Amino acid sequence: MTDSQALTKLAEAINSHDAESIAACFSVDYVSENPHHPSRNFVGRATVLRNWMAMLTRFPNLTARVLRCATKGDEVWSEWEMVGTLADGTSVTIAGPVIWCTDTQGLVSWARFYLEPVSDEPIRPS
């Protein structure tokens, strides 16, 4: 499986709203890094499953799309946009880049997430 096929498979799994299908895109020993929120770093497919079960409960109509991607060596750089609605009707957009690698089976084995909620708050000068 090529990196672009793995990327497509992951986006399709997210849009299927099936946490098991999403988790199946990741290796058992997957490493997740979140440089802006280091306490969110973790290892393992089981945590991917737990996290996506929670995400899909919070955003039952979540849709994901890849806006851009580029591959260099064994790394895939991708820009994601995810849109969903909370139970109170609030629409939420999460966007940003994800850098990741796949293993020899085409499963995501490592990723660095820079996804953040999109805010329309103006920047206030200091």
Q: State the end-to-end CA separation.
A: 50 Å
Total count of helical runs of at least 4 residues: 3
Strand content: 35-45%
CATH class: Alpha Beta
Q: What is the average of the pLDDT values? A: 93
Task: Tell me the total number of β-strands.
Answer: 7
Number of domains: 1
Output the helix-strand order.
HHEEHEEEEE
* Residues in helices, as a percent range: 25-40%
Q: State the low-pLDDT regions, or none.
A: none
**CATH structural fold name:** Nuclear Transport Factor 2, Chain: A
The structure class reads: alpha+beta
Radius of gyration: 15 Å
- Given the C-alpha coordinates, what overall shape results? globular
The CATH architecture term is Roll
Sheet having the most strands = 7 strands, mixed
Domain SnoaL-like: 9-102
Protein name: Nuclear transport factor 2 family protein
Pfam families: SnoaL_2
